[in-house]
Amino acid sequence: MRHSSTTRRDSLYLGGVIATGLAIGSCFPAATNAQAALDPITKPIPSTGERLPVIGLGTNQYSVTAPEDMARLQQVLEEMIAQGGSVVDTARVYGRAEEVIGDLVQKIGKRDRFFIATKTSIRGDISSPEAEIQAAFDRLKVDKLDLLLIHNLHALDQLMPAFIRAKEQGRIRYIGMSTSVDSQYAEQMEGMKRYPLDVIQVDYSIANRGAADEILPLAQERKMAVMVNMPFGGRGNAGNVTFGRVAGKGLPDWAKQIDATSWAQLFLKYAVSHPAVTVAIPGTTQVRHLIDNQGAGKGRLPDAALRREMERYWDTL
């Protein structure tokens, strides 16, 4: 199994850290005891007012079968709810991830503690949109979905009417669509204007701020919640070097103003502090990273002035 944490922090970050002679143990500061004692920050889904913890969990590396891998991922999910988190994002295209999430949530036995979001992605003609929706229910072993999104806008106009009907029937609580590439932003905005969506998902990070130009303001105008994917960066930009770019660097003094104890927390606090953003979904398969990430959803967030300072700092690195 290829661990997302290896890609995200170990490979990109440790090379620079080791080169500078820093102790490896200092690379992954867990959330402090003070953070753990705090209640998680929550933000509302505008269409209902339901509040979600601002840090969720991405599962694109959860396509596993080995018992030891399943046990480790169960620990991640259990720790997430222990930390006060709830949002789990998955997708049909993530291999067995939906089945794994379904099995583990069922085994943990606390379905009401999880807000499960999944994405369906179909290319070409669809004989039965309803069958595609039912398949997601079956893979996740649920009779009701918290959130179903159209992945990367594929077959948007074919699938969305069925999504709307399923929501009206009470089978899906929220509906939406996702993208993770700026080449789809124009199409996503058209869909946001055309359909009654509850949630959109888009790539956004301190290294990849393009969505803030038009997508995020439109979400605010249309009263749609925003899930941020790739909060540590993204494809096609410098985002995947976020940890490498700060390798060997101590946190800026102003990190204390937002209770950030690691670079991951600083990056995540930047993403979720945008007024339009409801939740970020960093992926991890490691408990220590999960705890660190969840720490970003506690304590203070940057205000507009500090966000600008963070952007200036990043742009000069």
Secondary structure layout plus pairing:
Blueprint: H1 4-19, H2 33-36, E1 42-44, E2 51-53, E3 57-58, H3 67-82, E4 87-89, H4 97-108, E5 115-120, H5 129-140, E6 145-150, H6 156-168, E7 172-178, H7 185-194, E8 199-203, H8 215-221, E9 225-229, H9 242-245, H10 263-272, E10 279-280, H11 287-295, H12 304-316
Parallel strand pairs: 3-4, 4-5, 5-6, 6-7, 7-8, 8-9, 9-10
Antiparallel strand pairs: 1-2
Provide keyphrases for this structure.
317 residues, alpha/beta, TIM Barrel, 8-stranded parallel sheet, two-stranded antiparallel sheet
Are there runs of 5+ residues with pLDDT below 50, and where? 1-8, 11-28
CATH topology term: TIM Barrel
Helix/strand structural class: alpha/beta
Binned, the helix content reads 25-40%
CATH architecture: Alpha-Beta Barrel
How many separate helices? 12
Largest sheet: 8 strands, parallel
Distance between the termini: 33 Å
Elements, N to C (H/E): HHEEEHEHEHEHEHEHEHHEHH
Q: Please, how many domains?
A: 1
Task: Tell me the Rg in angstroms.
Answer: 19 Å
- Quick one: how many beta strands? 10
Describe the protein's architecture and organization.
Helix 3 (67-82) packs across helix 4 (97-108) and helix 3 (67-82) runs parallel beside helix 11. The chain has one domain (4-316): NADP-dependent oxidoreductase domain (TIM Barrel, Alpha-Beta Barrel), CATH 3.20.20.100. The strands form two sheets. The protein has an eight-stranded parallel sheet, with helices on one face. Strands 1-2 form a two-stranded antiparallel ribbon. The chain has helices at 4-19, 33-36, 67-82, 97-108, 129-140, 156-168, 185-194, 215-221, 242-245, 263-272, 287-295, 304-316; strands at 42-44, 51-53, 57-58, 87-89, 115-120, 145-150, 172-178, 199-203, 225-229, 279-280. It is globular and about 55 Å long. The protein is built from twelve helices and ten strands. The chain is an alpha/beta fold. The two termini are 33 Å apart.
